[in-house]
């Protein structure tokens, strides 16, 4: 029987830097490389950028801002620019507008070309170096081959590891390998799982929900993680709807997505039809379901240094620190949602004593000469990765590695050779925060007080550069100033005011939805 293959077009492109994976780490890496003069291509397998933070997954960007010892600490640099732009242009917190902001940031960045809907599947080697990477762009039925000098893998699943022969790990290290107290006694292949979220909306009348026959059934609150307290708030879904840690978190993704949907709909059925407090959810209806699971862990590259629990607990003080984290070591149970049946917690937070540094040596391959990486696939143990995996930290690593790649191109160096010039990379990263005046203008615009008087007030308070959230909290509390309807509370999320204190100026949001 003779088969017929789809005729595919072929294109070959040349670049200084190729970034594979357009999540938050890859986006920051690509922008940073392009800004510092490297001809850069960003290859991403989805139609929208942002990865877990995009409209396809809608996971909040967490990082150093959630560490409870230093108020208002957060990542700056490119991520700060994106957040400020979103604050100014997207007061209703629409994920589609967030997608647009990320797209614009990449699409109109000089030196940066986008290849969306392009899945990397092949690589060619030249000795110990990558020579080219090929992806299939499904929307154009075109094989896109990129020949670059430096390759940066921000795919999350470390797709270039099996394609290039780069050293990687997957699973949990034994406790005695690195002396990590939170590691299991014996090494295994288990990982943290993946999650499917949902969003719901409140209406002015009761909304019924009839679950499909294939949804899971949860009659009691005790059948769910954290009992009755675990699902008392239902706008955004739950991180603990999680599976995959006891399976192959790459090759079993489709099957795991199906199981996660069964659980998600079963949880919503419990909230609407079975929970003792279901009357409180009577007017709520599902608005969105996540069909692309948000992964936490799979392959992790091996670099010249492997970050460990002990590094984090000792504040990660390295001579070659180029990024930082601040999230706790948030080690999810491999059983995920099913941990409740085992009487085990869905996750255990092991607090980091302070923000910690991430060394440059964790961001390039030990054995592939021109391969770098950032994000959850960086060179870390499972224990350390339970902290570094969050997207704020991934952005910090991404900007560092993109900047480093551009410096390598400029000087004709391999990534490892840049270690001898690490102070220059560190200084460039320190100088990369958004300009102070940009903060002031965004703040003034956001709170509806864009006037010379307010800008002078902002300019008289240089601490705004670090604590602008505190400042517009302060301004909003003054009776003579008119706050926006949507105001941030310090470290408490968002609070909605039904009416502004004064009628002008304010942003009217008719149907606010927390997302």
| Percent of residues in helices | 25-40%
Provide a count of the helices.
13
Mean of residue pLDDT values: 87
Q: What's the N-to-C terminus distance?
A: 53 Å
Could you state the CATH homologous superfamily of the largest domain?
FAD/NAD(P)-binding domain
Number of strands: 22
Low-confidence runs: 471-515
Oligomer: single chain
* CATH C-level of the largest domain: Alpha Beta
Strand percent estimate: 15-25%
Describe the largest sheet. 5 strands, parallel
Question: Strands across the major sheet, in which order?
Answer: 4-3-2-8-20
Which fold name corresponds to the CATH topology of the largest domain? FAD/NAD(P)-binding domain
How does CATH name the architecture of the largest domain? 3-Layer(bba) Sandwich
Backbone shape = globular
Structural class: alpha/beta
Rg over CA atoms, rounded to whole Å, is: 23 Å
Please tell me the total number of domains: 3
Question: Could you explain the architecture of this structure?
Answer:
The chain has helices at 24-35, 77-89, 95-107, 160-164, 175-178, 253-274, 309-313, 382-388, 391-411, 422-430, 436-446, 452-459, 464-476, and strands at 9-14, 17-20, 40-43, 112-115, 118-126, 129-137, 142-147, 150-153, 168-169, 194-195, 198-202, 242-243, 284-289, 294-295, 300-301, 321-325, 329-332, 347-350, 356-359, 371-373, 486-489, 493-496. The chain has 515 residues and is an alpha/beta fold. The chain folds into three domains: 10-171 and 297-430, FAD/NAD(P)-binding domain, CATH 3.50.50.60; 194-295, no CATH class; 436-496, no CATH class. The strands form eight sheets. Strands 4-3-2-8-20 form a five-stranded parallel sheet, with helices on one face. It has a four-stranded mixed sheet with strand order 1-7-6-5. The protein has a three-stranded antiparallel sheet with strand order 12-10-14, with helices on one face. The model is unreliable at 471-515 (pLDDT under 50).
């Amino acid at each position: 029987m003779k088969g017929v293959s789809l005729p595919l077009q072929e294109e070959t492109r040349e670049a200084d830097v190729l970034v594979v994976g357009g999540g938050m780490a890859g986006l920051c890496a690509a922008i940073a490389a392009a800004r510092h003069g490297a001809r850069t291509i960003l290859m991403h397998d989805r139609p929208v950028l942002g990865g877990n933070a995009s409209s396809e997954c809608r996971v909040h960007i967490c990082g150093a801002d959630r560490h409870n010892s230093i108020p208002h600490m957060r990542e700056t640099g490119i991520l700060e620019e994106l957040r400020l732009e979103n604050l100014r242009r997207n007061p209703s917190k629409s994920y589609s507008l967030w997608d647009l902001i990320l797209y614009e940031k990449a699409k109109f960045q000089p030196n940066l070309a986008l290849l969306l809907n392009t899945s990397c599947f092949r690589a060619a080697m030249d000795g110990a170096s990558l020579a080219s990477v090929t992806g299939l762009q499904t929307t154009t039925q075109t094989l896109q081959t990129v020949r670059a000098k430096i390759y940066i893998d921000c795919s999350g699943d470390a797709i270039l590891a099996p394609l290039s022969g780069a050293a990687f790990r997957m699973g949990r290290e034994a406790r005695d390998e690195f002396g990590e107290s939170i590691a299991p006694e014996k090494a295994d292949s288990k990982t943290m799982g993946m999650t499917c979220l949902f969003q719901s909306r409140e209406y002015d009348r009761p909304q019924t929900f009839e679950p499909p026959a294939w949804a899971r059934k949860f009659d009691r609150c005790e059948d769910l993680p954290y009992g009755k307290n675990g699902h008392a708030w239902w706008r955004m879904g739950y991180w603990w709807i999680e599976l995959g840690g006891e399976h192959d978190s790459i090759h079993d993704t489709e099957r795991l997505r199906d199981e996660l949907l069964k659980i998600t709909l079963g949880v919503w059925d419990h909230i609407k039809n079975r929970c003792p407090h279901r009357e409180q959810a009577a007017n709520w209806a599902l608005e969105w379901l996540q069909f692309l699971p948000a992964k936490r862990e799979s392959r992790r590259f091996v670099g010249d240094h492997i970050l460990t629990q002990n590094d984090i607990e000792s504040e990660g003080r390295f001579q070659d620190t180029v990024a930082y984290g601040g999230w706790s070591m948030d080690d999810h149970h491999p059983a995920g949602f099913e941990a409740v049946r085992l009487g085990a917690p869905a996750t255990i937070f092991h607090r980091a004593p302070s923000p910690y540094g991430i060394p440059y040596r964790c961001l390039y391959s030990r054995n592939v000469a021109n391969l770098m990486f950032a994000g959850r696939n960086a060179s870390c143990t499972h224990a350390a990765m339970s902290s570094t995996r969050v997207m704020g930290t991934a952005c910090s690593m991404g900007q560092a590695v993109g900047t480093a790649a551009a410096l390598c191109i400029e000087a004709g160096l391999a990534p490892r050779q840049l270690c001898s010039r690490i102070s220059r990379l560190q200084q460039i990263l320190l100088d990369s925060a958004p300009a102070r005046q940009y903060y002031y203008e965004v703040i003034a615009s956001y709170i509806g007080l864009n006037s010379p008087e307010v800008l002078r007030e902002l300019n008289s308070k240089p601490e705004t550069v670090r604590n602008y959230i505190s400042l517009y909290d302060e301004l909003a509390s003054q009776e003579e100033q008119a706050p926006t309807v949507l105001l941030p509370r310090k470290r408490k999320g968002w609070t909605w005011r039904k009416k502004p204190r004064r009628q002008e100026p304010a942003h009217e949001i008719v149907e606010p939805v927390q997302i």
